[in-house]
């Protein structure tokens, strides 16, 4: 069981030394971030690149991908972009193959893509809406993981973006919340199998973050007052608040952390 422990310790010590000698902590990493041309995904892609990673951004719309790549490259960051609908097998394969062709490896997968076509009472969700939510938010995350893990290097990291709604479903987006609960189980299952490969899997559960998606929940004065009441830090989170945690999980600083779900919600109640 511990036959490779000495090798792992030596490798980790070397990585720690390189980090403390001034090298950016993700300088040897290649990261794929899905749905990364706006909001939380864009903040994550930007932070990983700022920390030294070579990053592949993706989105369903070509114009958004091109705009994001231009913007990040203008900042001197190493990025490329791929048009990708995560529910499309050919798109997922193109995402992986482009990453390997451009950068030669893959070390980090951030599964951020999600949809929510249903807004209202949970049991009013149609079968079509429910299936679409599960397909994009859960099934695609599983399939992308299944396809990328065989190409991922040892000491790789997988990060799923879930939601605080995974613990206590939001009344008006119940089906979306259910899909995010499923990601908690996916994280555990992937972490258990991939531990032997020295690949980690963790999950982040954001609270209410200021994005286009959250506008429906935060667009009124009454909604803001309620947020201030239930969030001890009395503010809505920023996408950058999530990006910093992802950067930590992508780095060797979290090398002994796997199978966990981290709530980033300003103290908003989620669990014991």
UniProtKB/TrEMBL annotation:
GO molecular-function terms, A-Z: carbonyl reductase (NADPH) activity
Keyword Cell wall biogenesis/degradation: no
Coiled-coil positions: none
Record bears the keyword Cytoplasm: no
UniProt KW keywords: Oxidoreductase
Matching InterPro entries: NAD(P)-bd_dom_sf (IPR036291), Sc_DH/Rdtase_CS (IPR020904), SDR_fam (IPR002347)
Similarity field: Belongs to the short-chain dehydrogenases/reductases (SDR) family.
Protein name in UniProt: Dehydrogenase/reductase SDR family member 4
Organism of derivation: Medioppia subpectinata
């Amino acid at each position: 069981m511990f036959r490779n422990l000495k090798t792992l310790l030596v490798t980790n010590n070397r990585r720690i030394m390189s980090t403390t000698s001034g090298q950016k902590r993700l300088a040897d990493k290649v990261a794929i971030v899905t749905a990364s041309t706006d909001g939380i995904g864009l903040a994550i892609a930007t932070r990983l690149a700022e920390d030294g990673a070579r990053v592949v951004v993706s989105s369903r719309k070509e114009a958004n991908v091109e705009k994001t790549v231009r913007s990040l490259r203008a900042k001197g960051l190493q990025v490329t972009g791929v048009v990708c609908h995560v529910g499309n097998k050919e798109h997922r394969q193109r995402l992986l193959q482009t990453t390997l062709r451009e950068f030669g490896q893959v070390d980090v997968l951030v599964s951020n893509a999600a949809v929510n076509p249903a807004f209202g009472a949970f049991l009013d969700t149609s079968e079509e809406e429910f299936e679409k939510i599960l397909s994009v938010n859960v099934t695609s995350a599983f399939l992308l993981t299944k396809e990328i893990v065989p190409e991922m290097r040892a000491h790789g990291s997988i990060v799923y973006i879930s939601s605080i709604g995974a613990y206590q479903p939001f009344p008006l987006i119940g089906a979306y919340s259910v899909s995010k609960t499923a990601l908690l189980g996916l994280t555990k299952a992937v972490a258990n199998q991939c531990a032997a490969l020295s690949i980690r899997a963790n999950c982040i559960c954001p609270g209410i973050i200021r994005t286009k998606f959250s506008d429906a929940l935060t667009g009124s004065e009454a909604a803001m007052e309620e947020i201030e009441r239930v969030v001890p830090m009395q503010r809505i989170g920023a996408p950058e608040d999530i990006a910093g945690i992802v950067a930590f999980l992508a780095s060797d600083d979290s090398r002994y952390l796997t199978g966990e779900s981290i709530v980033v919600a300003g103290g908003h109640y989620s669990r014991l």
